[in-house]
Design brief:
The complex is a heterodimer of chains A (332) and B (489).
Chain A: H1 2-6, E1 11-16, H2 23-36, E2 41-45, H3 50-57, E3 64-66, E4 71-75, H4 76-79, E5 86-91, E6 101-106, E7 110-112, H5 120-132, E8 137-141, E9 157-163, H6 170-184, E10 202-206, E11 209-213, H7 216-224, E12 230-233, H8 239-246, E13 256-259, H9 269-277, E14 281-284, E15 289-296, H10 307-317, E16 324-325
Parallel strand pairs in A: 1-8, 1-9, 2-4, 2-8, 9-15, 12-13, 13-14, 15-16
Antiparallel strand pairs in A: 3-7, 4-6, 5-6, 10-11, 10-12
Chain B: H1 4-9, H2 12-18, H3 24-31, H4 41-60, H5 66-74, H6 79-85, H7 92-113, H8 116-120, H9 130-136, H10 154-171, H11 175-208, H12 211-236, E1 243-244, E2 254-260, H13 263-271, E3 279-284, E4 286-292, H14 298-313, E5 322-325, E6 331-335, H15 347-364, E7 368-373, H16 381-398, E8 401-406, E9 418-424, H17 430-439, H18 445-452, E10 454-460, H19 470-476, H20 481-488
Parallel strand pairs in B: 1-5, 4-8, 4-9, 6-7, 7-8
Antiparallel strand pairs in B: 2-3, 2-5, 9-10
Helix pairs in contact in B: 3-12, 4-12, 5-7, 6-12, 7-9, 10-11
Classes of the chains: A alpha/beta (332), B alpha/beta (489).
Chain lengths: 332, 489
């Protein structure tokens, strides 16, 4: 099923709610499926996260298995941690703590360690270069935080992995995963009056009027005097901003908050829900396609979930139309 | 020599930021640019000749430089790997960079061969290093990638064959067979890595023989690129290559700068809809005095002089119609708007301490350019004037330096053999000015006044006193009549 899901998309990223959520399993499975279908794939990752910090010390073994012909963009030092036979194709000039990001082609099957660039603009350059060098599809191993959820700027679609390692409390895992899934499934705004080059943090759109503000408090003030308004928010949408908007009170009903993309919504699930309950809704300028949520009922810390109960709860909690898969079983 | 803050202030940083070499190597020279020392005249003139040659050729046919520019832009910095090649085994990434460099070098050398100007440059020799390239590209395919070919050794070919077979077997293996095959795959990967390491070691040692020659060639590339950047900037901003006069006796040495401009200040003026008035000056060892009205541009003239003298000494084009300079041992600038109150001294105290350091510098290293802008302005006019007069006489008598003093104290100019004036309002049509000012808003009066100013420097006979424009300016600015009556009484 995974292979059918990714079919329409040239670049797909994998995102995990936590370590051991099964993100790498998903990635390996995607690579294997593409190899079976004779596709040339390319791999890179978003910078470096907690999981990858171990690899400088060499305590973490590379665990992504690629096939001959695969393109890999990773930091120079990480290239040596893998064991594929390789050809150096391109050096990017993009620095990372583990050396410059280098693009190589695998001439054998084998293990690789990914540590790509951390900036969106750089990832975009890498993606284009890999497509130019003959990759049919690009997989981006995403980070372990909501902060870079799926990065719509660089990938057309995403797969979110979650599992029992996230929390001992299954309910919390399900709720938080569902919140992330909801953010990744936000619709594109239908408004046509959204300015593309807004420089200030907040733009309040009301009727034919557009007012710009640096402070959330000022934007909330303008919102209070408006009806059926929309607020375009550049960059991150924080709890601080959300709390400022609460002061707009009843004016929140019918307000549309427009973020650049789902990954910019950094506010807590609680505040997000609160704004929704007040009658506002969230949209984005750039959408990501959330292809699936994968679950791993086994925890690295010993508290496993009941597989069926977990799958069931997750299926009920995620946005409609998003399949929930257990990658370890056949339905993947 | 001028301090970093002063270099920013006189507009030197602006010039450096506008220089755009194509390669990392040229850019490094740009960032490190410094004046040549007094005994480096030959090096300086060689550099300036290069700029002149390139500017001439570039002006005639800029398109002919495109292949050269393209090649320069593709070069990456490989100097670290060059040094490492003499000590250790290079990684495949380093060999990749070297191979790419040497491939680009082939086209760079071809581009240079097509440019007569590039072949005539002093100290620039760019040639292909095909023998070195053959070492890092053993199969001679000139592919823009790096991988040791299978036939680098029989051993490597054998390992890679076995590895391929193991890969294929592993893909279709049953779960029982997988563990054994995986272990075999891992063992073969290690063997391949070892054999590649050995082969890269051989390759590195063979290449290292050329590393020093390549290092020198890179210096040539840097010089060519940097000189070309200077030539392009010179053409863009209508500058010229200064002539560096040969060593002359202290009475013959001359510093001539005709119609100088200051690009940074010029740009700022253009934004306000005004133009920079070119200034010309001719200096001999001894004292030269510049006088002129307030708001008249004396400081601008000094900064422009400092900038262009510094540029010439740094092997850069100058922004003037014509420039002849001797090798200067140093350039000193003492100006109010560049002071900071260091060490708790008052601004006057600070100025005098620095002035003393300049005097010492001048007697230790004769042949410096000394620029004193409104020297001793911070004390009472009586003593201030005495200090300026003393400075004029001191520099004139010692003839150790080219000293330029701006002042509006009376009785100073008469002591200097050379006296320039900034014209100021002197030639302005009084009635036109009055009616323009009457029509202007109060806030823009200063702006308007500057349009009636003549910022040109004019040489006047010795013995002429500075213009007395202060009261005229007050009147023109419409300072309250009530007050002006008191002034006249």
């Amino acid at each position: 099923m995974l292979y059918e899901l990714i079919q329409p998309y040239t670049s797909v990223s994998t995102v995990g709610m936590c370590k051991n959520a099964g993100k790498t399993t998903v990635l390996n499975e995607l690579i294997r499926l593409c190899a079976e279908h004779g596709e040339t794939v390319a791999l890179t990752s978003v910078g470096r996260d907690g999981e990858r910090s171990d690899l400088v010390t060499g305590t973490k073994k590379p665990e992504i298995f690629v096939y001959s012909g695969t393109l890999i963009a990773t930091a120079a030092d990480c290239l040596d941690l893998g064991d594929v036979s390789r050809e150096i194709l391109w050096t990017s000039g993009m620095p990372t703590p583990m050396g410059e990001v280098v693009l190589a082609r695998a001439w054998s099957d084998g293990l690789v360690q990914l540590a790509g660039p951390s900036m969106t603009a750089q990832l975009r350059v890498i993606r284009e270069k890999m497509l130019e060098l003959g990759a049919g599809r690009v997989f981006i191993d995403g980070a372990l935080s909501r902060k870079s959820l799926a990065m719509p700027a660089v990938s057309d679609a995403a797969i979110l992995s979650t599992g029992a390692s996230y929390s001992r409390d299954m309910k919390k895992t399900v709720n938080d995963t569902a919140h992330s899934a909801a953010l990744m499934s936000l619709e594109r705004t239908e408004r046509e009056d959204v300015p593309e080059d807004a420089e200030q943090k907040f733009t309040v759109l009301c009727g034919s009027k557009a007012q710009c503000f640096e402070l959330a408090e000022d934007a909330a003030d303008a919102l209070r005097r408006a009806e059926k308004a929309a607020v375009l928010i550049r960059g991150g949408v924080t709890d601080r901003a959300a709390e400022a908007f609460f002061s707009a009170g009843r004016a929140l009903s019918g307000t549309e908050f427009i973020a650049e993309d789902g990954s910019r919504l950094l506010l807590s699930a609680g505040n997000y829900e609160k704004l929704l309950r007040a009658g506002s809704r969230f949209t984005v300028l750039k959408t990501t396609r959330l292809l699936a949520v994968t679950v791993n009922p086994f925890s690295a810390y010993g508290t496993h979930y009941d597989t069926d109960a977990f799958l069931d709860a997750m299926r009920r909690a995620v946005p409609a139309g998003v399949p929930v898969l257990n990658v370890k079983t056949k339905d993947a | 020599m001028l301090e970093p803050k002063q270099l920013t202030n006189i507009g030197f940083d602006h010039i450096i930021q506008n220089l755009q070499p194509f390669s990392v190597y040229g850019d490094e020279l740009r960032r490190r640019v410094r004046p040549y020392k007094k005994d480096e005249r030959e090096k300086l003139t060689a550099e300036l000749e290069n700029v002149k040659l390139l500017a001439k050729a570039f002006e005639r046919d800029p398109a002919s430089f495109s292949p050269l520019a393209r090649a320069l832009m593709l070069l990456k910095d490989i100097r670290r790997s060059l040094a490492r090649s003499r000590e250790t085994t290079l990684t495949d990434i380093e060999l990749f960079e070297i191979k790419r460099f040497l491939i680009v070098l082939e086209s760079l050398a071809a581009a240079c061969a097509e440019l007569p100007a590039a072949r005539e440059l002093n100290g620039v020799e760019i040639f292909p290093m095909t023998a070195a390239l053959d070492i890092v590209d053993p199969d001679g395919m000139r592919a823009q990638t790096f991988r040791l070919p299978d036939d680098s050794s029989e051993e490597l070919a054998r390992i890679r064959r076995e590895r391929k077979a193991a890969d294929i077997a592993l893909r279709t293996a049953s779960p029982d067979e997988k563990d054994g095959l995986s272990a075999k795959r891992t063992r073969l990967a290690a063997l391949e890595e070892n054999e590649e390491l050995r082969l890269r070691g051989e390759m590195t040692r063979a290449f290292a023989v050329y590393s020093e020659q390549l290092g020198k060639l890179i210096e040539s590339i840097a010089r060519l690129d940097f000189a070309l950047a200077k030539a392009r900037l010179m053409l863009d901003l209508h500058g010229c290559v200064p002539e560096i006069a040969e060593e002359a006796g202290e009475n013959e040495a001359k510093l001539v700068l005709t119609d100088m401009v200051n690009p940074a200040l010029g740009e700022a003026l253009r934004e306000k809809g005004r133009e920079f008035t070119p200034v010309s000056i001719e200096l001999a060892r001894g004292s030269t005095v510049i006088t002129g009205a307030n708001m008249g541009g004396k400081s601008v003239a000094v900064k422009t002089l400092a900038l262009n003298a510094y540029l010439a000494m740094a092997g850069m084009p100058v922004f003037a119609k014509e420039a002849v300079l001797p090798m200067l041992s140093d350039i000193h600038l003492l100006a109010e708007d560049m002071e900071d109150s260091r060490g708790g001294l008052s601004s006057f105290g600070g100025e005098m301490v620095r002035f003393d350091a300049i005097l010492r510098g001048c007697s230790e290293n004769p042949g410096a350019l000394v620029l004193l802008d409104e020297f001793a302005r911070g004390t009472n006019p009586h003593e201030g004037s005495a200090l300026v007069r003393a400075a004029v006489r001191y520099f004139e008598e010692k003839k150790q330096a080219f000293a330029v003093l701006t002042t509006h104290f009376d009785d100073v100019a008469v002591l200097a053999p050379v006296h320039y004036q900034v014209m100021g309002l002197r030639r302005a049509d009084e009635s036109a000015l009055a009616s323009a000012l009457a029509a202007a808003e109060e806030r823009s009066a200063g702006e308007l006044l500057s349009r009636f100013m003549d910022y040109g420097l004019y040489r006047v006979p010795a013995g002429v006193n500075p213009p007395r424009d202060a009261l005229r300016i007050c009147r023109a600015l419409g300072i309250s009549d009530g007050f002006m009556r008191f002034v006249h009484e």
